[in-house]
Amino acid sequence: MTCHALGLYAQNDAPNKQSPLTAKQQSIITISALTARGELQTLKPALNQGMDAGMSINEIKEVLVHLYAYCGFPRSIRGLQTFMEVLAERKADGIIDVEGAGASPINHKADKYERGRTILGELTQTAPEKPMTGYGAFAPVIDIFLKEHLFADIFERDVLTHAERELVTISVISAIGNAAPMLRAHLNICLNVGYTPSQLQHFVSVIKPTIGKKAAKEAQRILSEELHHKRQ
User: Fold this and answer.
1) Of 18, 53, 154, 199, which has the highest C-beta tally within 10 A?
2) For the whole model, what pTM was predicted?
3) Candidates 3.40.718.10, 2.130.10.10, 3.30.365.10, 1.20.1290.10; CATH matching 16-103+157-231
Protein backbone atom coordinates (compact mmCIF):
# COMPACT_ATOMS: atom_id res chain seq x y z
CA MET A 1 0.00 0.00 0.00
CA THR A 2 1.15 3.53 -0.63
CA CYS A 3 0.86 6.53 1.62
CA HIS A 4 -2.08 8.73 0.63
CA ALA A 5 -2.41 12.49 0.71
CA LEU A 6 -3.50 14.00 4.00
CA GLY A 7 -7.22 13.71 4.61
CA LEU A 8 -8.08 12.19 1.22
CA TYR A 9 -7.72 8.45 1.57
CA ALA A 10 -10.43 8.14 4.20
CA GLN A 11 -13.05 9.56 1.88
CA ASN A 12 -12.63 6.83 -0.74
CA ASP A 13 -15.16 4.54 0.93
CA ALA A 14 -18.00 6.93 1.75
CA PRO A 15 -21.31 5.29 2.71
CA ASN A 16 -23.70 4.37 -0.10
CA LYS A 17 -26.39 7.03 0.23
CA GLN A 18 -29.01 4.87 -1.48
CA SER A 19 -28.77 1.87 0.86
CA PRO A 20 -29.28 0.99 4.51
CA LEU A 21 -26.20 0.12 6.51
CA THR A 22 -24.33 -2.89 5.15
CA ALA A 23 -23.69 -6.08 7.10
CA LYS A 24 -20.11 -4.90 7.62
CA GLN A 25 -21.23 -1.54 8.97
CA GLN A 26 -23.73 -3.21 11.29
CA SER A 27 -20.96 -5.46 12.60
CA ILE A 28 -18.79 -2.41 13.29
CA ILE A 29 -21.63 -0.95 15.37
CA THR A 30 -22.25 -4.09 17.40
CA ILE A 31 -18.58 -4.93 17.97
CA SER A 32 -17.84 -1.36 19.07
CA ALA A 33 -20.79 -1.12 21.46
CA LEU A 34 -20.23 -4.52 23.07
CA THR A 35 -16.54 -3.83 23.56
CA ALA A 36 -17.26 -0.44 25.10
CA ARG A 37 -19.69 -2.06 27.54
CA GLY A 38 -17.31 -4.91 28.37
CA GLU A 39 -19.81 -7.60 27.36
CA LEU A 40 -17.16 -10.03 26.22
CA GLN A 41 -19.20 -13.22 26.00
CA THR A 42 -21.69 -11.52 23.72
CA LEU A 43 -18.81 -9.93 21.83
CA LYS A 44 -17.52 -13.34 20.73
CA PRO A 45 -20.42 -14.19 18.40
CA ALA A 46 -20.45 -10.58 17.19
CA LEU A 47 -16.79 -10.91 16.20
CA ASN A 48 -17.56 -14.14 14.37
CA GLN A 49 -20.42 -12.41 12.60
CA GLY A 50 -18.12 -9.56 11.60
CA MET A 51 -15.62 -11.97 10.07
CA ASP A 52 -18.41 -13.80 8.26
CA ALA A 53 -19.68 -10.43 6.96
CA GLY A 54 -16.36 -9.90 5.20
CA MET A 55 -14.34 -7.88 7.70
CA SER A 56 -10.63 -8.63 7.65
CA ILE A 57 -8.62 -9.40 10.77
CA ASN A 58 -6.86 -6.04 10.51
CA GLU A 59 -10.12 -4.14 10.12
CA ILE A 60 -11.55 -5.63 13.31
CA LYS A 61 -8.27 -5.05 15.14
CA GLU A 62 -8.39 -1.43 14.01
CA VAL A 63 -11.95 -1.04 15.31
CA LEU A 64 -10.85 -2.37 18.69
CA VAL A 65 -7.80 -0.09 18.74
CA HIS A 66 -9.71 3.01 17.62
CA LEU A 67 -12.29 2.77 20.36
CA TYR A 68 -9.73 3.06 23.17
CA ALA A 69 -9.72 6.81 22.52
CA TYR A 70 -13.36 6.91 23.59
CA CYS A 71 -13.73 4.20 26.25
CA GLY A 72 -10.18 3.55 27.46
CA PHE A 73 -7.35 1.06 27.14
CA PRO A 74 -8.89 -1.59 29.45
CA ARG A 75 -11.98 -2.06 27.26
CA SER A 76 -9.90 -1.96 24.08
CA ILE A 77 -7.37 -4.50 25.32
CA ARG A 78 -10.06 -6.86 26.61
CA GLY A 79 -11.71 -6.62 23.21
CA LEU A 80 -8.43 -7.49 21.50
CA GLN A 81 -7.87 -10.42 23.85
CA THR A 82 -11.37 -11.68 23.12
CA PHE A 83 -10.71 -11.38 19.39
CA MET A 84 -7.53 -13.42 19.81
CA GLU A 85 -9.61 -16.18 21.40
CA VAL A 86 -12.13 -16.05 18.56
CA LEU A 87 -9.41 -16.27 15.91
CA ALA A 88 -7.82 -19.24 17.68
CA GLU A 89 -11.19 -21.02 17.79
CA ARG A 90 -11.85 -20.30 14.11
CA LYS A 91 -8.39 -21.56 13.15
CA ALA A 92 -8.98 -24.75 15.13
CA ASP A 93 -12.22 -25.19 13.18
CA GLY A 94 -10.30 -24.91 9.92
CA ILE A 95 -11.54 -21.43 9.04
CA ILE A 96 -9.00 -19.37 7.13
CA ASP A 97 -9.62 -15.68 7.73
CA VAL A 98 -8.29 -12.84 5.60
CA GLU A 99 -5.56 -10.81 7.30
CA GLY A 100 -6.25 -7.73 5.20
CA ALA A 101 -4.10 -4.70 4.50
CA GLY A 102 -2.23 -2.97 7.29
CA ALA A 103 -1.84 0.77 7.71
CA SER A 104 0.13 2.66 5.06
CA PRO A 105 3.29 4.46 6.20
CA ILE A 106 2.74 8.03 7.37
CA ASN A 107 5.44 10.22 5.87
CA HIS A 108 3.97 13.67 6.36
CA LYS A 109 6.49 16.28 7.46
CA ALA A 110 3.89 18.81 8.52
CA ASP A 111 3.44 19.56 12.22
CA LYS A 112 1.36 16.80 13.80
CA TYR A 113 -0.91 19.25 15.65
CA GLU A 114 -1.70 21.05 12.40
CA ARG A 115 -2.31 17.75 10.60
CA GLY A 116 -4.81 16.76 13.25
CA ARG A 117 -6.37 20.21 13.15
CA THR A 118 -6.77 19.91 9.37
CA ILE A 119 -8.42 16.49 9.60
CA LEU A 120 -10.79 17.71 12.31
CA GLY A 121 -11.70 20.66 10.11
CA GLU A 122 -12.44 18.29 7.21
CA LEU A 123 -14.67 16.17 9.42
CA THR A 124 -16.61 19.03 10.98
CA GLN A 125 -16.53 21.18 7.83
CA THR A 126 -15.59 24.12 10.02
CA ALA A 127 -12.38 25.90 10.94
CA PRO A 128 -11.35 24.71 14.45
CA GLU A 129 -11.45 27.66 16.81
CA LYS A 130 -8.23 29.42 17.65
CA PRO A 131 -7.59 30.48 20.37
CA MET A 132 -9.29 27.66 22.21
CA THR A 133 -12.27 28.17 24.48
CA GLY A 134 -14.10 25.91 26.93
CA TYR A 135 -12.36 22.72 28.03
CA GLY A 136 -9.53 23.32 25.55
CA ALA A 137 -8.69 26.62 27.20
CA PHE A 138 -9.17 25.15 30.67
CA ALA A 139 -6.83 22.20 29.98
CA PRO A 140 -4.81 22.98 26.82
CA VAL A 141 -2.98 19.65 26.94
CA ILE A 142 -6.21 17.77 26.15
CA ASP A 143 -6.52 19.80 22.96
CA ILE A 144 -2.97 18.81 22.03
CA PHE A 145 -3.71 15.14 22.66
CA LEU A 146 -6.93 15.33 20.64
CA LYS A 147 -5.31 16.98 17.64
CA GLU A 148 -1.95 15.17 17.64
CA HIS A 149 -2.98 11.72 18.74
CA LEU A 150 -6.65 11.15 17.94
CA PHE A 151 -7.03 13.14 14.75
CA ALA A 152 -3.45 12.69 13.47
CA ASP A 153 -2.00 9.42 14.79
CA ILE A 154 -5.27 7.49 14.70
CA PHE A 155 -7.39 9.07 11.96
CA GLU A 156 -4.47 9.08 9.51
CA ARG A 157 -4.32 5.28 9.65
CA ASP A 158 -6.07 4.03 6.52
CA VAL A 159 -7.10 0.57 7.68
CA LEU A 160 -10.52 2.12 8.27
CA THR A 161 -12.06 5.05 6.42
CA HIS A 162 -13.06 8.21 8.24
CA ALA A 163 -16.68 7.17 7.78
CA GLU A 164 -16.03 3.78 9.40
CA ARG A 165 -14.14 5.41 12.27
CA GLU A 166 -17.08 7.71 12.91
CA LEU A 167 -19.38 4.70 13.03
CA VAL A 168 -17.13 3.20 15.70
CA THR A 169 -17.16 6.51 17.55
CA ILE A 170 -20.93 7.05 17.71
CA SER A 171 -21.38 3.41 18.70
CA VAL A 172 -18.99 3.74 21.65
CA ILE A 173 -20.37 7.10 22.78
CA SER A 174 -23.93 5.75 22.64
CA ALA A 175 -22.86 2.70 24.63
CA ILE A 176 -21.07 4.53 27.44
CA GLY A 177 -23.80 7.15 27.87
CA ASN A 178 -23.79 10.58 29.53
CA ALA A 179 -21.84 12.12 26.65
CA ALA A 180 -24.59 13.89 24.73
CA PRO A 181 -22.46 16.80 23.43
CA MET A 182 -19.93 14.39 21.95
CA LEU A 183 -22.61 12.17 20.41
CA ARG A 184 -24.28 15.24 18.94
CA ALA A 185 -21.00 16.41 17.40
CA HIS A 186 -20.13 13.03 15.92
CA LEU A 187 -23.61 12.44 14.50
CA ASN A 188 -23.11 15.69 12.62
CA ILE A 189 -19.73 14.46 11.42
CA CYS A 190 -21.42 11.26 10.22
CA LEU A 191 -23.69 13.38 8.04
CA ASN A 192 -20.65 15.27 6.77
CA VAL A 193 -18.81 12.10 5.74
CA GLY A 194 -21.75 10.73 3.79
CA TYR A 195 -24.21 8.90 6.02
CA THR A 196 -27.84 9.72 5.30
CA PRO A 197 -30.52 10.44 7.93
CA SER A 198 -32.12 7.07 7.18
CA GLN A 199 -28.80 5.30 7.69
CA LEU A 200 -28.36 7.00 11.07
CA GLN A 201 -31.91 5.97 11.99
CA HIS A 202 -30.85 2.45 11.03
CA PHE A 203 -27.81 2.87 13.29
CA VAL A 204 -30.09 3.44 16.28
CA SER A 205 -32.15 0.34 15.49
CA VAL A 206 -28.99 -1.77 15.10
CA ILE A 207 -27.42 -0.63 18.37
CA LYS A 208 -30.63 -0.79 20.43
CA PRO A 209 -30.41 -4.52 21.34
CA THR A 210 -26.85 -3.97 22.60
CA ILE A 211 -27.23 -0.78 24.64
CA GLY A 212 -30.85 -1.20 25.76
CA LYS A 213 -34.03 0.79 25.27
CA LYS A 214 -33.11 3.70 27.55
CA ALA A 215 -29.74 4.42 25.95
CA ALA A 216 -31.14 3.89 22.46
CA LYS A 217 -33.98 6.31 23.23
CA GLU A 218 -31.42 8.93 24.25
CA ALA A 219 -29.43 8.35 21.05
CA GLN A 220 -32.64 8.67 19.05
CA ARG A 221 -33.54 11.90 20.84
CA ILE A 222 -30.19 13.48 20.04
CA LEU A 223 -30.29 12.28 16.44
CA SER A 224 -33.83 13.62 15.94
CA GLU A 225 -32.82 17.00 17.33
CA GLU A 226 -29.82 17.22 15.03
CA LEU A 227 -31.79 16.19 11.96
CA HIS A 228 -34.45 18.76 12.81
CA HIS A 229 -31.76 21.41 13.20
CA LYS A 230 -30.26 20.46 9.82
CA ARG A 231 -33.64 20.87 8.11
CA GLN A 232 -34.09 24.42 9.40
Assistant:
1) 199
2) 0.91
3) 1.20.1290.10
